[in-house]
Amino acid sequence: xxxxxxxxxxxxxxxxxxxxxxxxxxxxxxxxxxxxxxxxxxxxxxxxxxxxxxxxxxxxxxxxxxxxxxxxxxxxxxxxxxxxxxxxxxxxxxxxxxxxxxxxxxxxxxxxxxxxxxxxxxxxxxxxxxxxxxxxxxxxxxxxxxxxxxxxxxxxxxxxxxxxxxxxxxxxxxxxxxxxxxxxxxxxxxxxxxxxxxxxxxxxxxxxxxxxxxxxxxxxxxxxxxxxxxxxxxxx
Length: 236
What we know:
Blueprint: E1 6-8, E2 11-12, H1 23-33, H2 50-62, E3 68-69, H3 72-82, H4 94-103, E4 115-117, E5 123-125, H5 128-140, H6 144-170, E6 174-176, H7 185-197, E7 201-203, H8 215-228
Helix pairs in contact: 1-2, 1-3, 3-4, 4-6, 5-6, 6-7
């Protein structure tokens, strides 16, 4: 079983599945949550087709074909667009790969990436201020490599703070890192280091990939466990 304890703030994706191929759409969705950040997002829309941009804005205004998402992958897409690293993706994950490549081994700064916590201890990480900080850095002429590195470090630190809080509350000492975002070597390394320095044992993918390539394997494991316990595997 599982219980969700934290998430990224939901953001609308104008165009639905098109957003995965057009990072500027994801940036536009985040901008719709904070219209005052227009200046910070300016680079994200350079070169975006005017008609497509206008249509995406109408979709957001009317709530049509703009499903909500709290995906870390889409946040990486938005950051890549804001930094001008990638506005159109030719394949899944290209924007995140370009962002990781831009960061390289550059030293990064910690930018705002904080969480709100509800009365029952549920954490919601707010990406808006982080994206605005990146965009304002671009506007100042800061080096993209430094900003990309700062994005990675900030995501790792914000995530580590939430994990530490949840682990402390639940009495946990072991953390397993899974999901396609952990194919990003820089993020994986820095997050693991931050968690270990907080005294947590960290498990990472080894024999199987951390992304969707292992979903079917995981489903088989769950099914085997339920059958072994005499439970049904059928959905209600």
